[in-house]
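Sequence in, structure out. Go.
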Amino acid sequence: MEEYLKEFLNINNLSENALKVDQKLQGLSEKVTQWLGEIDEQHRTTFLILLKYFNYFNRQKVHDTFAKLYEQYTSLEIEHESTIYAPITPKRPIYNGTNEFFSIFREVCSDQVKTTRIAFQLRDYLKTYNTSEISNIVLVDDIIGTGTTLRDYLHPLINDFSNKIKDKKIYILCLVAHPKGLKKIEKMRNDLGMEIECLYGYELTKAFSKGRFFEKEQDRIKARQVVREYESKIAKRDDDIMGFQESEGLVAFFHNTPNNTLSTFWEQEARVTWHPIFPRTIRGDELPLDNTDVTLEAIKTRGNKKNNLAKFIFNKIRERLING
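Output:
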């Protein structure tokens, strides 16, 4: 086990210090031992091979990948200075992984992008501002898996703000992209007749693709059968067997694990006793936000209140100084 764990750390360029500061990696050796304890001894090597090549994004890797993507975007797009940047957000405002990785993206481009070009909620931004001088919209995400989340996010915006979006180029910047999601983006581009491009750091290749981890075809087929047996017992939802819609992903981020990853690595609500290495945050555990706190109007109101309070305090201090 230790040899495979060392390989995992080396491949992901993770230091011993990373195991201490990254909450998801703390106690990793113990977590792996507990995880293997639920797997039959003759099957453990198969799962350790998958762990060895598991793609883990700590905060530094997220930062570095976004930096490369931003540089790629600004080199590719001549009118990059005329861009709105926004995260792909869930339907209801919550504090989740979106906030984590988008804050890192903002760190990457903070010196070059005006704060007025950052749209925390793109819908509110489009409602409030005149975007006639904007040429591009960059949507930032951690992963484009099957592409369903992107489609469900983008279609309503295009329907509601067609006059503000249809003439813009849309870029998706993501850390990881699955071939299924890339195909869906291509279909959206053709169906909508819009310029939509995806720039990504890593491709999420299926774990059991031919010639990837198992040189012999018979070994690959057998390994997939073994893993599928465990997946079928463990995944709470049938859709998550072998990763969502059989994505067969091997990826986790410091803030969460996507359901595109094999469920044997993240499922917390397993049908049997199971101890995942990279638990996925269960939907509903995120911190909900008050809708009134995320609209641009509310943000402006809070800003005005702060300014008025500052003026009030300043005037009171000045009065005391004048009156002795």
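Check: Confidence is low (pLDDT under 50) at residues 284-295. DSSP finds twelve helices and eight strands in the chain.
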